[in-house]
Design goal:
By secondary structure, the protein is of the alpha/beta class. It has 2 domains: 175 residues; 65 residues, Arc Repressor Mutant, subunit A (Orthogonal Bundle), CATH 1.10.10. Helices cover 40% and strands 16% of the residues. The strands form 3 sheets. Strands 2-1-3-4-5 form a 5-stranded mixed sheet. The N and C termini lie far apart (63 Å). It comes from Rufibacter latericius. This is DUF1835 domain-containing protein. InterPro entries: DUF1835 (IPR014973), DUF3658 (IPR022123).
């Protein structure tokens, strides 16, 4: 009997893209989407207390309350999916990880490989090269491009496996709330204020929409953070007195900010 072929992707868009490729039906028994953005927040996820800590952090810090429920669900959802993948690994399932070049996908891959210790021989991970012909992630790829990724999957050996495990163990032990890739691709822990100067550089003396400031900043930082993360930091800059606000500090569409004339902290 052939082993089950489980394909791991990152984000609901990537899942829909892969499922839409009829030519791959014979090579895909199931698709699992991991959705939690591990670039921000606590990541000691090996215990129930650590997962609850992450859920509480997401709910209390990321300001758009409309997003809180699904962001919380991603924490438990990803954990449950990984446990299911572990169970399938015991039955010799073939695990294909569609890891792109983005920091979020590499972090999620490192976490998954760490959790699958002892089953590295089951893993095949995409290694997408840096060139202009292939998108950096399945989530931004046109369906007709997907077949181009196949040749970049490679079986995980002990050395490659060890690199992923070491990366996750290091970042987890550093207890940071922000993780960013350097120009050479190495992912490092950073202070939560890491992107604040970029945000401030796009703020003026007149009111501007928060969505505009975050959008321009995302381009400057090569999308190394999500819009919800930059929204959180923009709110913190208001609370610290660096910026003045007009509107409700919630989702990006609900407020505008400008440079503060006098620095006054908000409660």
């Amino acid at each position: 009997m052939a082993s089950e072929k489980i394909h791991i992707v990152f984000g609901e868009t990537a899942e829909l893209t892969l499922l839409s490729i009829k030519e791959m039906t014979a090579d895909v028994d199931s698709v699992v989407s991991l959705n939690d953005d591990l670039r921000v927040g606590p990541i000691n996820l090996g215990s129930l207390d650590g997962r609850v800590e992450r859920q509480n952090w997401v709910t209390s810090n990321l300001p758009c309350k409309e997003d809180a429920a699904y962001l919380r669900s991603y924490v438990t959802g990803d954990f449950d999916k990984i446990q299911s993948i572990r169970d399938n690994s015991k039955d010799k399932a073939e695990i294909y990880i569609w890891c792109g070049r983005t920091t979020s996908e590499r972090l999620a891959t490192a976490r998954l490989v760490f959790e699958l210790q002892g089953y590295f021989s089951n893993l095949t991970i995409a290694d997408i090269p840096k060139n202009g012909n292939i998108a950096e992630s399945l989530s931004v790829m046109n369906p007709e491009q997907v077949h181009l990724i196949h040749k970049y999957f490679k079986k995980t050996d002990q050395e490659e496996y060890g690199k992923w495990v070491t990366m996750w163990a290091r970042l987890k032990s550093e207890n940071s709330l922000m993780r960013v890739a350097r120009a050479d691709g190495v992912i490092e822990s950073k202070e939560v204020s890491y992107f604040d100067d970029t945000l401030l550089s796009h703020c003026k003396e007149e009111l501007l929409k928060a969505a505009r400031i975050v959008g321009e900043s995302l381009v400057d930082i090569w999308f190394e953070a999500s819009d919800s993360t930059l929204n959180w930091r923009l709110v913190q800059l208001v609370k610290s007195g660096e910026l003045e606000v007009d509107g409700k500090l919630n989702c990006l569409r609900e407020y505008k900010v400008k440079r503060a004339t006098t620095k006054t902290k908000q409660p």
